[in-house]
Specification:
Layout lengths: L8 H13 L3 E4 L4 H15 L2 H8 L10 H14 L11 H9 L3 E4 L4 H8 L20 E3 L14 H11 L2 H11 L15 H10 L6 E3 L9 H16 L5 H19 L1
Helix pairs in contact: 2-4, 2-10, 10-11
């Protein structure tokens, strides 16, 4: 069809309507709570900036939920729902990947693990699919970090645990693992020349520093589990029920965040 990745939200809407007219679902998206919230936190960044994002999800400022930028992100989420498959339902993310891989859907918004899944399904980057930023998020990096934990207690195993940890962060393993998964190495002193262009772009974006880094709420980087669950549940409720207004969702979240803050005092 000769379509290119959308440059802005108006371009996204234009492309989505063309795809729908051709019988193609513009956006692969599950209604599963964490997947909806993953899309939403990206839209929050698009409508605001990293400072606003952190005010919402890290500093837990109730007033931030009443901000027009948060309302616009909710409106955007509701609009983008109209570009998804109406009967997708609560699919696991791997099934959403299959929708995209089979050509049933043209775009999706997901973490870098999706690239690893698509490659595992036999697709080739820059041949069968490509990576691009969501409009207005070019200057930020929404991140989550996998954590490997070895419990203390049986110190007879400490030597082997330390050897294993050294192996996991060695340059060879870091490059090899991240090349397969689709992510970027945790070490900053590694030659990334063998990574693909998507990973290199992600590496450069993250390397810009804290002012450009947004910790994922959904993937437990921004806040505690209770706070995360409350916000994610409300976003999914809003997504599933078109009768719930943007203003109502804002007021409800602001009140819940205020109550959680009092509980933590």
């Amino acid at each position: 069809m000769g379509l290119k990745p959308p440059r802005d939200f108006n371009d996204f809407r234009r492309i989505a309507l063309i795809l729908q007219a051709a019988g193609i679902t513009p956006l692969a998206q599950s209604s599963e709570a964490w997947q909806v919230a993953t899309l939403f936190e990206t839209l929050v960044l698009a409508e605001g900036d990293v400072a606003f994002y952190r005010d919402l999800f890290v500093h837990k400022n109730p007033q931030a939920y009443l901000d027009p930028r948060f309302a616009q992100a909710l409106n955007r989420l509701r609009e983008w729902k109209t570009y998804t498959h109406k009967t997708t339902g609560d699919l696991p993310w791997t099934e959403v990947a299959k929708q995209f891989a089979s050509g049933q859907a043209a775009m999706l918004v997901m973490g870098d693990w999706m690239k690893g899944e698509l490659v595992a399904q036999g697709l080739v980057l820059d041949v069968d699919f490509a990576c691009s930023v969501v409009p207005k998020t070019e200057d930020v990096h929404l991140y989550s970090i996998d954590t490997l934990v070895m419990f203390a207690g049986d110190y007879a195993k400490q030597v082997n645990q330390e050897r294993f940890a050294q192996l996991m962060v060695s340059p060879a393993v870091q490059i090899g693992y991240n090349r397969i998964k689709g992510s970027i190495p945790v070490r900053r002193d590694i030659d990334i020349g063998s990574l693909d262009r998507c990973s290199k772009a992600s590496w450069r974006a993250f390397s810009r520093g804290r002012a450009f880094q947004a910790p994922s709420l959904v993937h437990r980087m921004a806040a505690d589990e209770t706070f995360k669950d409350v916000v994610v549940a409300q976003i999914q409720t809003f997504y599933l029920d078109d009768k719930i207004s943007v203003a109502e969702t804002q007021q409800r979240l602001a009140a819940m965040v205020k109550a959680l803050n009092r509980k933590d005092e």
